[in-house]
Amino acid sequence: MPVQVKQFMVDWVKQHVASTPTLDEMAHAVGYSTYYCSRHFKELTGMTYKVYVSKCKLEAIASELIMTNETITVIAQRYGYASSDVLSRAFYKQYQKSPSAYRKQYMDIKGA
């Protein structure tokens, strides 16, 4: 698989992360089979497609927490989480703090 196609896959996921893009959708976008894309995606990123999408979602959410004043519930819904509680559990696993604690920490730093 050409390097440009691999980079396109990563960029495509980041561009579509709020809509919870599936592996099938990404494979269709690049014109390769799902299996072929899955194998090369893991080779490129070191993680499965699903894990990478989750990581990208949480990074985008972390950014929104510090760049906007939207509620955690609104942000959770935008990124396809069933509730703010579900988001909070996933967020805590990646950042070792709740979304509200993450936002507060940033605001304390920004205000200092």
From TrEMBL:
Q: Which UniProt keywords apply?
A: DNA-binding, Transcription, Transcription regulation
What residues form the membrane-spanning segments?
none
Residues covered by the HTH araC/xylS-type domain: 7-105
A single GO molecular-function term is: sequence-specific DNA binding
Identify the Pfam families for this entry: HTH_18
The leader peptide range reads none
Q: Which InterPro entries match?
A: Homeodomain-like_sf (IPR009057), HTH_AraC (IPR018060), MarA-like (IPR050959)
Q: Which PANTHER family match?
A: ARAC-FAMILY TRANSCRIPTIONAL REGULATOR, RIGHT ORIGIN-BINDING PROTEIN
Name the UniProt record assigns to this protein: AraC family transcriptional regulator
**Species name for this entry?**
Breznakia blatticola
Give the taxonomic lineage as stored in the record: Bacteria, Bacillati, Bacillota, Erysipelotrichia, Erysipelotrichales
